Amino acid sequence: MKLYTRTGDSGLTSVKGGRVSKDDIRVEAYGTIDELNAYVGQAAAAAAATGQMDELVQELVEIQQELFDCGSDLAFADPEGREFKMTDEPSTRLEHWIDAHTEAAPAITRFILPGGSEVSALLHVCRTVCRRGERRIVTLAAEVAVNKEVQKYINRLSDYFFAAARSANAKLGQQDTEYVRSAEVFRKRDK
């Protein structure tokens, strides 16, 4: 099988049910999700290299599978009446993971700077790319129908990356760095 097809040389690409410009908002949306998936893979590799984060690696690999499902759902030229891959179950699971990661990290009251350990820094990159993907999906949803479960999942996912980044630092004994000019913006959680 050849990897090059030459069918995109004119600036068009195939989506499920047609061809569109390579800068079409649909391509921007699922392309950003694909970019996010690559960063998640990098974060999983860094987490695996620590030898201390098997559970996080498993979560990230599952997220990569779901990001492919999100991209698939976004790639329909006409999504009306389609059977989508993403349901509400992955978002609900993310909420449980967010809660667990939040409990594993010390309480915060101020904004924090992305960084600390390599794993945490990479998870913060995932968070910001995820937010960009969400913005692209919102733009797409204003023009055409999209699977609302994808939009919900990507919204939860950015919160997951924040919580996972903080718990990764805690697990590796690395403190988060507070943004020194931040007011206290987070309420202290009840124990």
UniProtKB/TrEMBL annotation:
Keyword list (alphabetical) reads: ATP-binding, Cobalamin biosynthesis, Nucleotide-binding, Transferase
Presence of keyword Transferase = yes
Pinpoint the Cobalamin adenosyltransferase-like domain residues.
3-167
| Catalysis performed (reactions) | 2 cob(II)alamin + reduced [electron-transfer flavoprotein] + 2 ATP = 2 adenosylcob(III)alamin + 2 triphosphate + oxidized [electron-transfer flavoprotein] + 3 H(+); 2 cob(II)yrinate a,c diamide + reduced [electron-transfer flavoprotein] + 2 ATP = 2 adenosylcob(III)yrinate a,c-diamide + 2 triphosphate + oxidized [electron-transfer flavoprotein] + 3 H(+)
Q: Which GO terms describe its molecular function?
A: corrinoid adenosyltransferase activity
Q: Which domain of life is it from?
A: Bacteria
EC number(s) for this protein?
2.5.1.17
What pathway, per the record?
Answer: Cofactor biosynthesis; adenosylcobalamin biosynthesis; adenosylcobalamin from cob(II)yrinate a,c-diamide: step 2/7
**Gene3D superfamilies linked:** Cobalamin adenosyltransferase-like (1.20.1200.10)
Instruction: Give the family this protein belongs to, as stated in its UniProt record.
Output: Belongs to the Cob(I)alamin adenosyltransferase family.
Name of this protein: Corrinoid adenosyltransferase
Q: Which organism is it from?
A: Paenibacillus oenotherae
Please name the taxonomic classification of the source. Answer: Bacteria, Bacillati, Bacillota, Bacilli, Bacillales
